[in-house]
Amino acid sequence: MAFDKPRNELYQWSVVSALVDGVASNGLPMSDLLLHGDHGLGTFRGMQGELIVLDGQGYQMRHDGTTRPIDLSPSGDITPFSMITFFSPTISTMASITEKNGVEPILAALTPNARNAHIAFRLDGAFKSITCRTAEGQCFEGEGLKDVVGRQVSITLGPARGTVIGFRSPEFLQGIAVAGVHMHFINEERTAGGHVLALETDGEVNVQVSELWRTIMDFPRDKQFNEAEMKLDAEGIRKAEG
Amino acid sequence: MAFDKPRNELYQWSVVSALVDGVASNGLPMSDLLLHGDHGLGTFRGMQGELIVLDGQGYQMRHDGTTRPIDLSPSGDITPFSMITFFSPTISTMASITEKNGVEPILAALTPNARNAHIAFRLDGAFKSITCRTAEGQCFEGEGLKDVVGRQVSITLGPARGTVIGFRSPEFLQGIAVAGVHMHFINEERTAGGHVLALETDGEVNVQVSELWRTIMDFPRDKQFNEAEMKLDAEGIRKAEG
């Protein structure tokens, strides 16, 4: 039987509020995550670095500035939080973007009927400048996202060719996902990138978009998740991940 | 190919915050909803009455005190919000319950490792008293849940044999689902019931429970949902649905 990939459905493992509470010791094997998509982002055990998945290939982007393909072996990488989809863009256009805040209005204009749905998007091309952060990871088990991100390392690349993988999520899903735009970048050489803090394109880049109307959400069956309080910290999430 | 029913996965159509905003003009045909489960609850177009699904059979319980099997024809009933699962209980026990607030501690004690997951449950037996409300429906398109429920009709049944179908959802999903316990009742004769406001068992009833670790959530692709603000009204939801 052929494996029918469910195109443009969002799969997510855990929720952002669990990361906020430091739930990052366990998670889904990356080999299982990739059964649910070829386009995604997330993090690693202990919030060590940033995950980007593009064209079915995942990379870890680490705080020391290095990157490596994710380890899909049985004892390999796991993810305590990720969002992924089999990306089948229904819109492809060119746009120039002068600041990170310019991404959301472009997406909103392209998908006026999906204001309250998730959007998956991808930007490809030349960036005049792109600033990325990579989380160094937890200093101790259960350390919260806010403190981890407080020690983030950021680098500014550019000019650089590369790809941004992102999701735009509606406001009412804050805490489940990241409300607004959440995006990770990796350069064309696959040697540098991270969570996007700022960007400016060098002329126009290709913008591809799909609307995601179905979400499949799995919760971790582990003690840390079970005990997490997960009170919504909307402002904290905006600062850490927005 | 045999249709493999995904046991103990939650399927939900839309979110509670959309109902709060009065998004109830359109929805999923009930015939499609039943592809996703045999145990569930929800509402109807215009919030007219309460939906209960048990053993794969759905009923509408209306404000005039009547009930009827749901209409599965192509032009039949639709639901603007529902939660459903193929219920395969992993726990079955007997318990006596003296008040509605007694349900949640029993569920919590039976599923200590699923504090942050959804729980599906079912109570069968004799109720000394059970008070149910049925929503009369919207007076105008887009009328919010709070105002609709303000006009609810409640009846107290008892002694009555029957079945409670319910879900217990974690606090961090308030607005997506109903945080805490949400349950609908129908009597053995299938002639009366509704959203449970109060209950007391007559001796012990059978309590069946399953943990739901996966959620599949579909969002409505319609103008009303797209335009809804869906600001979280936790207190309003607690009053209307808790």
From TrEMBL, chains A, B:
Pathway where it operates: Polyol metabolism; (R,R)-butane-2,3-diol biosynthesis; (R,R)-butane-2,3-diol from pyruvate: step 2/3
Keywords associated with the record: Acetoin biosynthesis, Decarboxylase, Lyase
Keyword Lipoprotein part of the UniProt annotation: no
CDD domains: acetolactate_decarboxylase
InterPro entries, per database record: Acetolactate_a_deCO2ase
Known EC number: 4.1.1.5
GO MF, any single term: acetolactate decarboxylase activity
Catalytic activity: (2S)-2-acetolactate + H(+) = (R)-acetoin + CO2
One GO biological process term: acetoin biosynthetic process
Lyase found in the keyword field: yes
Family: Belongs to the alpha-acetolactate decarboxylase family.
Protein's name in the database: Alpha-acetolactate decarboxylase
